[in-house]
Amino acid sequence: MENLYKKKIVKNYKLLLQLGFNIGSEGNISVRRGKHIFITPSGINSKDLKTNDISIIDLKGVLKNQIKPSSETAMHLMIYQKRKEINAIIHCHSNWASILSCLRQKITSFHYMVAEFGGSDIRCSKYATFGSKKLAKNVFDASISRKGCIIANHGQICFGKDVDEALHLSIALEKLSKQFYFCFISNKIKNLTKLQMNEALKLFETYKN
Hints:
Layout (H helix, E strand, L loop, with lengths): L1 H18 L8 E6 L2 E4 L15 E4 L14 H10 L5 E5 L2 H9 L29 H10 L5 E4 L3 E6 L2 H24 L7 H11 L5
Antiparallel strand pairs: 1-2, 1-4, 2-3, 4-6, 5-6
């Protein structure tokens, strides 16, 4: 079973490279299994990643093998510690989400699919240095009651019940970021009302596709 999770991480990390969401050693993926977290290692090029390279830590960050975990481990740990329903996290530097992150711009209720992330907007975190505990706190705060957020001057992060959901949301966030950017620069956005978004949110509670 342990090897299955490692294979899932490697497969999806390389998929992010193919999608152009990361280059080199950018981004990271983790999966929670019981009291252990499997996470991409620090400083390895995604195209070279193998199952034996995956780091294993516990929920306190204690290393369980000899492989140094991602520099963003603190961010993953804080989410797992405070969000018991989350079992997978994907962080990447996709282009359109990164553009919004440099504008420090949240995604508003311009499209009903924003509701897929759990609210009427997708927030942008406050800025902090990568790999820091401050960044972990800022990202956690921006993603309260959400399944992801934009990370200021950095990229995006999404999470779900498993890797498949986290990957789906990561791709969805990149798509929404591109759509929103062009609406944003047009100065002609027609946001949905609170009532309309509440209707969408209610439908997403049982939405499966």
